[in-house]
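Lecture 7 notes: from sequence to structure.
We start with the chain below.
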Amino acid sequence: MNVADVLRWGAEVRRDLPWRQTRDPWRILVSELMLQQTQVARVIPKYHGFLDMFPTASDCAEGSAADVVKLWAGLGYNRRAINLHRCAVQIVNDHGGSVPSTLPELLSLAGIGPYTARAVLAFAFEADVAVVDTNVARVLARQAGTTFTAKEVQACADERAPLGDGWAWNQSLLDLGATVCTKRNPACGECPVAQTCQWRGDGPDPAVGSAGVSGKQSTFAGSDRQGRGRLVDKLRVEPVAEIDLADVMGWPDEPDRAARVAAGVIADGLAVTQKGVLRLPS
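Predicted structure tokens for the same chain:
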């Protein structure tokens, strides 16, 4: 893969996204947590609305977890909202209100994994580190024509990250996977590095089953995730009595299932229960 070709392509067509217009670590952290498994178009208005309310980690830490969960409505995977509030509290208590700038410190924050930690380093602090999400992992597997382990794909990304261009390189590679080297029907004719690709649509896709590349998601309709989401959406509006859980989740004939899923919501910090009533955490 020719680094210069990717950088040139990115400079010409890279998407103009709001989190690419800032180097504020808190804003980058917010965007990265929102973007996990969520489409960009859904994130943009939520990103602006959240930062209007909580422009700094200190503002978020001073707010309640319930406020954060309410602002998260429509993004899904609500546990990320609780993690973001916990992150803000940690940032204030342990780092004086400033998002830390080292990998170990970032990884110590609630809900922050290797991708998010590296993304903050690359996009806020412009460190020359390689980030690997599902789009990047797919590009790298196809370029190499092989299925990677987690250690291998990160090593492959690290080898290619150019010194002095970490921000531009990672943003360009993310966009290449998101808009050209897509999961289905990749536009190989538009790819700036097609000439070095070992796959180019010929034969089994090496990205399938490669570490970091998302696989087929389970059906949402009728799933525990759907019932869980319905419960949290209801809690955003009002408390829910335990006797009403099954109806709220859409499983009127499955009270045991509703109780089990609700217990998970409570364990994740998305709700508290008192005297038979669930409500958002304070």
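Points to note: The mean pLDDT is 95. Residues 131 and 170 are 6 Å apart (CA to CA).
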